[in-house]
Amino acid sequence: MEKKKLLQAILNEAAQNGIGTVDDLKRVSLRQCEVAMDSMYNDLLFMLLKDSASIDFFCKPYDEVDIDYNRTSKEYTVTLPVPVVQTQKNIGVHLVRGVGSNRKFYPTTNEDVDLFTDMDESTHYDRTLYVMDGNSKIKLLNFDYTSLNIRRVQLKLIPTFMSYDWSEDVPIPSGRITEVVGIVAKQLFKGKKFLDTSVDGNPT
C-alpha cells in the first residue's frame, strides 16, 4: 500500500473515532502518523512475520552495492543504502550475496567470531560471513577481493518505515491493513500525537 495512503487511512481512522478536529489550531498531521508508524514498525513486523518467506515479502532488493576496503584496518565493509530495522537477529539484513557469484555471506556476531577464532578447529569461520558494524554498515569476514573476485554485493534489506518515500508501496499484507491501521491510530490516541500545531504539518 502506498505510504501516503496508509498514513491517510490511519489519520481517517483517528478522525472517525472523534480524535481531534481538523482546523488551524489542532491540525491532524501525516507527519505525526509517520513518526508513530516508524516507532511501532519493528513490533508490527514481528506480528506479521511468520517464516523466511514472509521476511522476503518485507524486503527490498539492492542489486549492485560496492564493497569498500580500508587499507589501514584491512577490513572489507559495505555501507547499507538505507537504514534497516534493528532486531536482535538482524533480520533487517536478510541476504548478502556476491554480484555475479553464488557466494553467500552468512550472518554472525562479534561474540561468535571471537569464540570460533579462539578454537583450534574453526569450521564455522571457513565460511564467508558478515557482522553488523554499527547501524549503517556490515563488515565482511573471511573474505578478500583476490581469491573470490567479488567487488559488489546484492542485498535484501528490510528498510525502516521512514526510509520509504511518500509514493512508495509499504509491504503490508492486504488482509492485515485494517488491523495495522487500527493499532497505530489507537497508539496516536494514547499519546495525543495526532495533534500538530505546526503550519506545515502535512506533506505536499
Descriptive notes:
With 204 residues, this protein is α+β, with helices and mostly antiparallel strands. The protein has six helices and ten strands. The strands form three sheets. Strands 3-4-8-7-6 form a five-stranded mixed sheet, with no helix packed on it. It has a three-stranded antiparallel sheet with strand order 2-9-5. The protein folds into two domains: 3-53 and 162-196, no CATH class; 60-157, no CATH class. The protein has helices spanning 3-16, 30-48, 52-58, 110-117, 145-148, 177-191; strands spanning 27-28, 60-66, 68-70, 75-79, 93-98, 106-107, 129-133, 137-141, 152-157, 195-196. The mean pLDDT is 82.
Summarize the model shown:
It is built from 6 helices and 10 strands.
Our count of domains comes out at: 2
* Helix percent band: 25-40%
Described by strand count, sense and barrel closure, the largest sheet is: 5 strands, mixed
Specify the overall morphology.
elongated
* Order of adjacent strands in the largest pleated sheet: 3-4-8-7-6
Q: Please, what is the average pLDDT?
A: 82
H/E order of the elements? HEHHEEEEEHEEHEHE
Number of helices: 6
Which runs of at least 5 residues are low in confidence (pLDDT < 50)?
A: none
End-to-end CA span: 19 Å
Radius of gyration: 21 Å
Topology, number of strands: 10
Find the structural class using helix and strand composition. alpha+beta
Range of strand content: 15-25%
